[in-house]
Structures are given as C-alpha cells and as structure tokens.
C-alpha cells in the first residue's frame, strides 16, 4: 500500500511554518542536550513555556535518538504542538531512529515541520527511511482508521533544500521495502505462486524489467524437480520467475535468489498451529528480491542483476512428497527428503543450480526465512550471513550497518559437511549426524553451498528479523522485508 506520508524539503523556519506540529531537534553530547534548530533565530523563544534548558530538565531529555517530548505553544492559528526530538549525534542511524519516532508521534496531525539539524546526505536518506517505514500500514479492514491514528500526510524538512536528492533516495528505499512488506503481509488465501508471478509481471512492466515465468509443465520439462517436489502436495502449482535488470555497460552480473513459499504447513512434517499461523510470511525472500529489482533503476545500480523467485506452496495431501522420497534437482544432484518442513532449501537449490548453469553470474546471493536455528542463535534483531567470499561478506555487512539491518557472519564449519550426506542420495535436506548437535542454520547453509558451483556466494537467513510481533521503531507488526534496503545499498554502491 502506498505511503500516506510525503516528505518534502522546504525553505524557511519553524516560526514561518503553519504546521500543527513543530519539531525542534535536540543533539546529545558530553555537555548535555543542545538544540540545533535555531529557536532564537526562528523567533520562537517567546512562545516557549520555559527556557530550553529548563524544558530539557523538566522532561528529563538527554537528546537520545528518538526521545521526544511535546507541549502546546501559541501561534497565529491558535495553539499548536511543539516537540523536542532527540537526534543523538546526528548520525544516519540516529536520524533513522529519530525519523521513526517522529512519524509515530505525528499520527493524527495534518502537517509536521522539522527544523533540519544540519546533518549530511546519508543522514537525510536515513531520516526519510525511518519516517516513512514507521508510517507504513497494511490493513484489509473495511473501516478507515480513526483520525488520531492516521499517519501525518506531510512532513516538511525545513532548511534541507540541498538534501532533496538524499531525501528522495530514502523515499525510494522505503518504497521498495513497503512493496516487499505488502507482498509478505498479503494473506495466503490470495497469495499463491501464480499470484506472485502476476505481481512480478506488473513490477516488470512498471520498472522496465524483462520477465520470464515457468509454469508447472515447463518446470517439469526443464528438470526443476525440487521446486515441483515441494509444491506437488498443493492444488496451487509452483512457479519460477526470472526478472532481469541490465544497465548500460554493466560492471558485473549479480543473481539474487529468493525463497518463495507462499504458505508453509510443513507438508507431511506438519507444523503446530502456533508456528503455522505465521507462515504467510515464508515467501519473504522472494518478496525482497522482487522489491529490490523494482528499485534498481531508481537507485542507479551499475550492475546487471537477475532475480529468481522460487515459488511453491508447501501443503499436505495424498500427493505430497513423502518422507524418504528422493528428488532430483535442476543440477542433477539427488536429495533425500527427511523432513518436508525443510523445504526452503529445496526450492533455493533448484533456482541456484539453474543460475550457475545458465546465467553465468559473478556473484550469487540468496535470501530466505530459512531456519528457526538462525533465530535461536541471533534473535529477531539480526540476520545470519554465510558466505564463501570474504570481500562479499564484508560488503554486505557494511551495507547492512548503513541500513540499520545488521548481519552477523556465521561459520561454514567444514567438519559439519558430513551432516548433509544421505545414505541413499547425494544429499539429505536436514542434518544426519547427531554428534554435531542441532546446527540447523549451518546445516542449511552447507546444503545450499553444494549448488553454488564455486561462484562467490552469500546466504542471508532472515528467519529472525523477517517478521515482527509488535510495532517498534521502523517496524510494524507482520513482515519486515529485512534486507531489502541492505541489498539495494550494496548493489547501488558496487
């Protein structure tokens, strides 16, 4: 759903603004909080209820990013509200948090005016990301939200005229993330593999991308045995979607692969209801890849990018893959299915095998809500990163830090390779060696590495941060689209 909020760089001062919420940024520092919005210069000193130092003390303000206090002040149009907004040191990460806090506090207002704290372009981009993503809503309710809970339609950023491009970049990054969130949050009654393929066709037309879709018969004739095996228990057949972005004189070719399980029952290895209730989000990887492809031209990415969406519904029926069945992947590698709830790595294996065999990538990156083990290891605030290439891992970690989407590199422990082996096939889809313990996230990464063909590869397991159970900062309850902005920054800066 489109953002209800628009961010506009504007000339002028708070004193000249007719907004109904005036926002004064407050820096933190060793000497205590300091306002940086030019209250005196803006002619607002006389309408404050007390000197700023007294207000800082009264509201116990330290200038921490996102810290906020509001009070009424008189203006020509009557009483309006003024907010003191902590912006920390003015760094991009602090401005992102401040933007999110401001957006939440501004619900119910018609117009917000922020005196820009003088930070640079990266901070302006981050502010726009925070303010817009915190205003994101997804609702299928028939009644409109109460006025007091609606996002502010406009946030004027005063004194940031030379940062228009930076604010616009933040808007583009947020819009891509919102697209992915919309796809993730759509109920699975609507969202089957063909629906996702149709959305990909729409995005391709809007964004100038080339698109190809494999339907069930083509998947079978071309040898995508793993995608077919995962999807065969459902009455809604699987799809594979390829999207292609080619700039002028591309510097390299990157292939992104997204896990697209449009609903995951666990198959015959049935999930308990509490876990299954969240599984409309199990196609987050494919939503992220589609969203990234949609915005590559807008952010000026200089590399050729191919996106692959491996789409299937993992259902249970008389046609479902049985435990102990052996599937033949696109690359010819055979896989014994020992747990039908470890299905994400199977659809990724087919797509990655195809990428290596047919697309000649320089770099291969997959993204997936893959394992609960990654969530156990790192919680919900950080994604797991596995990679065969140190430079690639460092680039992704840096892009994640710049995006406020932290990644933690995990080891591809060679001693664990044996746990991927099957007694009857080339590989098993879950660990087979109990002496290594429950190393589920690493088992899955080592399994996927078998399909990389020696190409520089990174695997992002976002099972922890891929969904949020509450409203918090930039996040709303539901799909987070974690890694969308990270991948866009990485591709734009390569």
What does this protein look like?
- It is a single chain.
- The mean pLDDT is 95.
- This protein has an eight-stranded mixed sheet with strand order 8-9-11-10-14-18-15-16, sandwiched between helices.
- It contains 15 helices and 20 strands.
- By secondary structure, the chain is of the alpha/beta class.
Spans with pLDDT under 50 lasting ≥5 residues?
none
* Helix content percent band: 25-40%
Radius of gyration: 24 Å
* Structural class determined from secondary elements: alpha/beta
**Averaged pLDDT, please?**
95
* Number of continuous helical runs: 15
Strand ordering within the main sheet: 8-9-11-10-14-18-15-16
Q: Sheet with the most strands?
A: 8 strands, mixed
Number of strands: 20
Shape: elongated
The CA-CA distance between the termini, in Å, is 30 Å
Sheet-strand content, in percent, reads 15-25%
The gist of it:
The chain is 34% helix and 22% strand. The chain contains 15 helices and 20 strands. The strands form four sheets. The protein has an eight-stranded mixed sheet with strand order 8-9-11-10-14-18-15-16, with helices on both faces.
């Amino acid at each position: 759903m489109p953002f209800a909020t628009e961010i506009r760089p504007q000339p002028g001062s708070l004193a000249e603004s007719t907004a109904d919420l005036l926002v004064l940024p407050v820096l933190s520092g060793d000497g205590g909080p300091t306002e940086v919005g030019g209250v005196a210069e803006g002619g607002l000193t006389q309408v404050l209820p007390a000197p700023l130092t007294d207000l800082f003390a009264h509201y116990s303000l330290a200038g921490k990013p996102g810290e906020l206090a509001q009070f009424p002040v008189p203006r020509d149009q009557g009483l309006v509200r003024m907010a003191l907004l902590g912006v920390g040191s003015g760094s991009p990460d602090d401005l992102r948090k401040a933007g999110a806090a401001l957006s939440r506090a501004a619900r119910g207002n018609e117009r917000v005016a922020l005196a820009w704290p003088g930070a640079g372009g990266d901070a302006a981009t981050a502010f726009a990301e925070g303010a817009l993503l915190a205003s994101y809503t997804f609702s299928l309710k028939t009644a409109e939200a109460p006025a007091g809970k609606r996002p502010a339609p406009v946030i004027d950023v005063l004194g940031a005229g030379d940062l228009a491009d930076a604010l616009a970049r933040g808007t583009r990054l947020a819009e891509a993330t919102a697209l992915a969130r919309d796809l993730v949050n759509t109920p699975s009654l609507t969202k089957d593999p063909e629906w996702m393929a149709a959305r990909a066709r729409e995005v391709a037309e809007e964004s100038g991308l080339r698109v190809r879709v494999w339907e069930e018969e083509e998947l079978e004739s071309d040898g995508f045995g793993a995608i077919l095996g995962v999807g065969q228990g459902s009455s809604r057949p699987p799809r594979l979607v390829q999207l292609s972005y080619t700039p002028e004189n591309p510097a390299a070719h990157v292939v992104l692969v997204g896990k697209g399980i449009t609903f995951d029952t666990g198959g015959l290895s049935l999930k308990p209801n509490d876990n299954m209730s969240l599984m409309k989000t199990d196609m987050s990887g494919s939503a992220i890849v589609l969203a990234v492809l949609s915005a590559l031209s807008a952010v000026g990415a200089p590399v050729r990018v191919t996106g692959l969406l491996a789409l299937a519904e993992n259902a249970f029926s008389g046609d479902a893959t049985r435990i102990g069945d052996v599937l033949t992947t696109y690359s010819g590698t055979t896989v014994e299915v020992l747990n039908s709830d470890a299905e994400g790595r199977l659809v990724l294996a087919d797509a990655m095998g195809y990428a290596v065999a047919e697309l000649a990538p320089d770099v291969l990156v997959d993204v997936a809500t893959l394992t609960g083990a990654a969530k156990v290891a790192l919680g919900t605030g950080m994604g797991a990163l596995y990679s065969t290439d140190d430079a690639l891992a460092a680039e992704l970690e840096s892009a994640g830090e710049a995006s406020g989407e932290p990644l933690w590199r995990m080891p591809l422990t060679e001693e664990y390779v044996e746990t991927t082996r099957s007694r009857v096939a080339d590989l098993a889809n879950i660990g087979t060696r109990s002496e290594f313990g429950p190393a589920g996230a690493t088992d899955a990464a080592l399994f996927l590495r078998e399909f990389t063909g020696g190409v520089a590869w990174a695997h992002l397991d976002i099972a922890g941060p891929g969904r949020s159970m509450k409203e918090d900062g930039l996040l709303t309850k539901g799909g987070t689209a974690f890694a969308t902005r990270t991948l866009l920054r990485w591709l734009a800066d390569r």
